Here is the input.
Amino acid sequence: MKKRSKESGQAVLEYMILLSITLAIVVGFAKNMTGIFDKAAPKIGGNFERQLRAGAAPAGLWKE
Here is the structure.
């Protein structure tokens, strides 16, 4: 029976390790995606502005 109580602590430790690894992956992914969006936003905005100036954007785009 004493061996069983030691194993329950091991399970909690394993879950904590898995949680920390998962959290590290999610944070790394979020930072990477933020960088991608930061680089893409000016390109998308510039392209959209060119379309608006040229009249190529949809007519009802700015309806409120």
User: Anything to note?
Assistant: The chain has a mean pLDDT of 80. Residues 57 and 63 are 13 Å apart (CA to CA). The chain is about 85% helix and 0% strand. The radius of gyration is 25 Å.
